[in-house]
Protein 1
Amino acid sequence: LKFILALFNSKLMTFYFRYLNPETDEVLAEVKKATVEKLRIHNTDKQKPYIDIVNQILEKKKGQLEADTKELENKLDVMVYRLYNLDYSDVLVVDTGFLLSKQDYEAFSYE
């Protein structure tokens, strides 16, 4: 479940959900079952690193919802980009504020 949480809260899934559901930014926009079913969930046998980061984020947010977890969230985003085999130019479309260089992105490893 925490692996799915990592995917659903990633910038990639947010981007894709907005593509599938253009009314996302409308007042009282609905989350439709048909739209959620179109989300592509890539599975991996290496879920533990994702789950570990989700646990760290949840621990920091426990009792302090304003806790800064941006670094952990950014790391999860990169892990999700790599899981879905996005190349650097694709990442820049999804995440216009992406901070890693092309070399750092391509060298990124979470294992």
Note: The chain has a mean pLDDT of 86.
Protein 2
Amino acid sequence: CKWSLVRIQSPRLAKGRSFRSGPFNFMSTFYILYSPSLDHYYVGHTSELMEERLRKHLSGHKRWTARAKDWAVVYQELHPDKGAAYRREREVKAWKSRKRIKELIEAATP
């Protein structure tokens, strides 16, 4: 598999340390969120810490995800740079298939 899968749970970080420090400095994340109240998946990518990006989605900004406050990260992949994460986002969005997205998530869930 050419994509690097990361578990959904975030690693516990030492106080004052960033996940992006050291060898992860330029990593970007492709992610899928799910909202039970909307029964909808949201596909995106970020160079921020995933926890910070999710906080922004939940904070009521004036974007599509502002429609619900119950978004949860259900899938994520680390990529070496923002371009690679963006290409993966475009690939998954091009599927236009909820079924394929669910299969991707289920295949990664232990």
Note: The longest strand covers residues 28-35.
Protein 3
Amino acid sequence: VSTDQVSGVGRRHNGLVSDPVAIRGIPSNQKSYVCIEVFNGERPVLLVSRQDGDWCFLCGGGHPDDAAFYRVVGIGHPIGDDPTLVEVLDLEVDEEAERLVLGGLWNRTRL
């Protein structure tokens, strides 16, 4: 499934429900963390991290190490809001991907 074909979680394609997250072997309700700006829809996801295996979808800005600045959501929520995130669902543990703008190319690095 390409990002052009995906308009959000649960899209119907050829009569079947396609789930871009589940297609990659990740359940849509897999726990992930988002920063408050992404959660509130104020900023796009520009940094995806898998530090210690946890999925984090962040705006790329600096945040204090304080739980008040993050929210726990099912991984299907950020993917549903931004289908281009399917491009980095193959990140391995202790790897991250960053882009400069929404829809930009991802730069992957090891943590």
Note: The first helix runs from residue 20 to 23.
